[in-house]
Amino acid sequence: MQARDHEPAASVTPITPLASTAPGRFAGQSLVEELLRQHSDRPVRSRLARTLGASPLDANELSWLRAAQAEMIVGEILGRLPEGYSVYHSLPIRNTAFWVDHLAVGPGGIFSINSKTHWDRDLTGSLRSIPINNHAMPYLRDARFESAQITALLAAVMPAAAVVEPVIVLVNPHKILLNRKPNAVTVIDSPRLRRWIVARPRTFNPEQQAAVTALIDDPATWHAAATPLVPAQLHARFTALEQQVAAARTRRTTFMVLAAAAAATVLAVVTSPLIVAAVEYLAVR
How many CA atoms within 13 Å lie on the side-chain side of 249? Predict the structure, then answer.
């Protein structure tokens, strides 16, 4: 679970015929802000480092970049929800240090969605935690906490029996193997997310959904924090950083291929006379 303070969506977005996204916040924006904050303290790469393909990001920054990419993938999926849904991203929960990766509101209820990236890995886990690289990650506990916080924030306009449903979305995992189905938390892979949300049974009537959406649109519902750059500038800087990382990876791969080819050439030059001498010796005998 991320722990940073960020700016809320500040405009009012009524329920529209198409899925809507709160203006001013894009998917992954909170992570992008933190990545750029960390990266601003790093010294500029030397010309030699750039030539050799040294990454502009350290290992920690790369993990933030991958997490932001995962949120953007999930955000794009949520943006394809059918009519009657509203979608919000990077909403900071008031009075806590947590933010909501994505919040989707529709006839089937409210879904607090956490994006997690585990590229091409089998994922196994239990009811209490999900182990990643031999570390037990409290994703399930955090998702339940986040859901409870948002339910409390929206309680004034929600039916008494309604709760925000916590969802953990794993972006393109190879396989999900949980020992048992987690209590109160849905763990799902990204390709199935849209279909799962749309299939949920109706929870709200139009009036209840409109009231919930209006409260989510109210900036006072969320914890506000200053944003150093407008979203378009943040996204542009993030895209430029992605391109630098990709270019560095290409350079490293090129140098590795060239180094392997050079090593093979040297080995051939060194061993060739020995092979010829061995063949001549055997031919004489």
Answer: 8
List pLDDT tens digits, range 203-223. Answer: 888 998 999 888 888 877 876
Mean pLDDT of 21-25: 52
**Largest pairwise CA distance in the chain:** 99
Higher per-residue pLDDT: 203 or 95: 203
**Measured between alpha carbons, how far is 230 from 84 in angstroms, rounded to an integer?**
28
Distance, in Å, from the CA atom of 72 to the CA atom of 56, rounded to the nearest integer, reads 21
115 DSSP β-pair partners: 169
| Separation CA 137–CA 122 (nearest Å) | 15
Q: Whole-model pTM?
A: 0.73
Backbone angles phi, psi at 278, to 5 degrees: -65, -40
Q: Tokens in use for 218?
A: 């109210």
Backbone φ, ψ for residue 102 (5° rounding) = -145, 145
| Highest-scoring range by mean pLDDT, 40-54, 144-158, 215-229 | 144-158
Q: Which residues fall within 8 angstroms of residue 238, CB to CB, at 6 or more apart?
A: 28, 32, 35, 36, 68
